[in-house]
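Colleagues,

Please find the record for the two-part complex below.
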Amino acid sequence: MEARDILTSSRLASGRSRLEAPSRRYGEKLIQGLLAACAAISVAITTGIVISLIEPSFGFFEHIPIGDFLFGTDWSPVIAPPSFGVLPIVVGTLSVTFWGLLFAIPMGLAAAIYLSEYASPRVRKTLKPTLEVLAGIPTVAFGFFAFSFITPFLQDIWPGFLGDGPNVFNALAAGVAIGLLIVPIIASISEDAMSAVPQGLREGAYALGASKMRVALRVVFPAALSGIVASMVLGVSRAVGETMVVLMAAGNNPQMTFNPAEQIQAMTAYIGSTATGDIATGTIEYDTIFAVGLLLFVLTLGMNMISIRLVRKYRQVYE
Amino acid sequence: MIGSERTRLAVAGARSVTAAELTDKPRGERVRGQIFWLLLLLGIGLALLGLALLLIDAFIDGAERFGIGLFTDPVSGFAEQGGFQTAIIGSLWVIGGVILVSVPLGVGAALYLEEYADKTRWWNRLIELNIQNLAAVPSIVYGILGLAFIARGPLDLGFVAAAASLTLTMLVLPTIIIAAREAIRAVPPSIREGSLALGATQWETTRHQVLPAALPGILTGVILAISRAFGEAAPVLLLGATTFVTQNTSNPFEDSYTVLPVQIFNYFNRAQDEWLALAAAGIVVMLVLVLAMNSIAIWLRNRYEQSW
């Protein structure tokens, strides 16, 4: 009797393993291993990025003190005597990003609120896919548009009291083009966040007599705020990392200026224009590409971490 | 926590509404609502107008160069003889390579994360966070990685189409993984449970039930990613695609190459009007291809989108 009890309890204890297949199924294990390897490649890529950026950057910072790099105000790495103060191209990037957001945020949010709160299902069904298709326009096309249309247009309408009209290459035209480029991103992510707000909140507000505008601005907008902010952060990181538009329309002249009519150089444009020429490996000019790339990577990584946090927050609240 | 957040919002909404009812005249409210609606329309209208102008501008600037020559003429030193043949062939090689490598890797990674991975393990969470971050890395940084690791450095492929394929693969991999995961997650657990209950192994379930059901969604993500790789110029600039290529690329591991967006950029850089027209014509060719691919992708998704 006792022996039998012990036998039963031991069977219960090993109950889980008894449900497994009689053979070891090596094929299944192999497939799982292969799939895991596919996923692990992403970690390898990140490691690759970090190593490829940091290693040459060390070489760079052996010659140039990091303080001179980060806070210097003269960027002329190929003109003798060379100077490696990165601030002018950081300012260039910030200026273009600022103008881009100035256009993209109002337009993107208007589009999102309209699609989520006002549009009839039919309008929504055509407009949203249209925006998504347009989001895939290659950036070379935006660069060309900025140069061949936006800049001449700005030169035509430039009011005299603002001083000289925009240069052939200028920060404002590139900014407007980048703004157009990120409108679909901001619109589509914000719209997703607003659509995720539970219907009950809207109905509650309507029941209290709120107008449509009030529901959109005072109930839906604050409820979706973390998602909306996340879409903006993504937009900023997209604008900071954009290369072709600034390369084609903002110029290649690193100047410490926030004047949008002037020619500037952005960080990405410096990398794009320097790395195409045949510069020899191991020279300081070659290493500057990596130092600037590292700075760019750190900036966008930081912004993306913030955006991931914010998105996770709104998911927790409503899903 | 969840309850209190909702309550806070509800209370704020209720307070603002009540305050408005007590103080505002209803007519002012209605007028303001109308103005707000108009502003929204203006915002979305301006965005669509800007994007439409982009298409129209490229079309008008490039109109004089439309013709079969765009597809049959190689790059040339004379604007009137220049075309995009070598660039289109180069793009086909590069994109072919991207599809070959990125699709199995991306779908495999998505299947692992959705069907196999134990989410409580730190390494699986690390992989997830990694993929989200990789999706936001600027494309030019991938160019630097390709330059340091693939064209030179450990792999040392040189400035060839295969190096561009691998670099662009890394660029689009996160997009494919994220889209494929969404598609796989949308397959309801009951499908898997039914299959497992009938004695199928995990892989048989994944292969014969989950994958076919998720296929339209995965395909959408893949097409969008490929069209992005096709239009991407910045990372390829760093990988030798700026050379003057007069011969069609026939070996992706040895021949020099260029791709369509970089060729457009090169013609653009010559700055005179006849070159700009040629660049604009190239942009139209590229836009037609990219927008067609994207439309197919979005149509696929909307057509096969099913609620279980």
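The longest helix of chain B spans residues 26-62.

Comments are welcome before we finalize the supplementary table.
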